[in-house]
Amino acid sequence: MSAIKQQVEQWIRAEIRDIAAYHVPAAGELIKLDAMENPYTWPEAMLEEWQRRVGEIPVNRYPDPAATALTVELRRAMGVPDEMGVMLGNGSDEIIQILALALGGPKRVVLAPEPSFVMYRMIAAFSSLEYVGVPLNADFSLDLAAMEQAIQQYDPAVIYLAYPNNPTGNLFAEADIEAIIRAANGLVVVDEAYHAFADRSFMSRLGEFDNLLVMRTVSKLGLAGLRLGLLAGPSEWLNEFDKVRLPYNINVLTQAAATFALQHIDVLNGQTRLIREERRRLFSEMARVDGLTLYPSAANFILFRVPAGRANAIFDGIKERGVLIKNMRASEGPLADCLRVTVGTPAENDAFLAALRAVL
Ligand SMILES: *Cc1c(COP(=O)(O)O)cnc(C)c1O
Predict the structure, then answer these.
(1) 204 CA distance to ligand 1 centroid (A)?
(2) Is the full-model pTM beyond 0.90?
(3) What is the rounded end-to-end Cα distance, in angstroms, of the chain?
(4) All structural domains of the chain with their residue ranges
(5) Which of 117, 171, 172, 189 to mutate to test the pocket of ligand 1 (most atoms within 8 A of CB)?
(6) pLDDT for 238-294, tens place per residue?
(7) 3-43+266-359: which CATH number, 3.90.1150.10, 3.20.10.10, 3.60.15.10, 3.40.190.170?
């Protein structure tokens, strides 16, 4: 073995060496329906106003560490109750990491249902936290008995519940989530990354339970490139997490751009409405394609199952026709033969539908 490989083996923790790096495929010229992005850009007048403002941003100065102006807009846009605290992250991924840093330690457990958002597991591995995944029921609802049993057994420091869930798209039953919050001794983070596409939220219930936190992001709302997420909940918790947060984690451009965008929230809401309408149309068109099992979605994507053993070929065939979706790459288990498509513009969805019909 070469000297450098030996040094890597000696110093990089085995948990890290064992991880396959998170692979984000390059889209190139393909129609990009793989990453739950909002396909719409800003109207011309809004872009022009933004371009005028960019010139006034003092990039020579450190950002406002408290992101004061942005926090005001976010609180309003997200409906955070006045008495609750807020902490911002460089994407909600960073918030998951901050929680891991603050909560981690020997025998500390992160628990989440599976399948769910892969970052819960990955960030646990990065931070020496133990990760426990509890399988969802076959219809992707929470297996409440199994969750309660796992809570008893592992006493998790934090439980993540994506609401709606990624990659399945469904909303868990509110009563099940409530039962989990009550059963848990540690924190329960309700991850509402897809809130804009669902009509349900735990935001207004903050304060009802001492251990409930709500996480949001602006990524799926149309601002994925800015990297901005938010955690809301009782200040007793958030003040502690805030000590771990790097002081300038939200840069000046993100603060300015997100503040500006949220002052035009009607534009983002309009785009969200279009995506929700297209979700309905895409679902009903896909339902007419033979051989697919569709999972109802309260998010901006649709998970679907193709005939056994054909997922890779169908994914490749759609790609050859110019559309990139997400292959869940499972030949067994709950996501066996599943693909996931993000809802795009009407034209993008039509291109996907044509490709899908052609390959099936
Ligand atoms: C996309 C996604 C996130 C990540 O959001 P960022 O703010 O872009 O880091 C968090 N949770 C779930 C469930 C997601 O699907």
Answers:
(1) 21
(2) yes
(3) 48
(4) 3-43+266-359, 56-264
(5) 117
(6) 999 999 999 999 999 999 999 999 999 999 999 999 999 999 999 999 999 999 999
(7) 3.90.1150.10
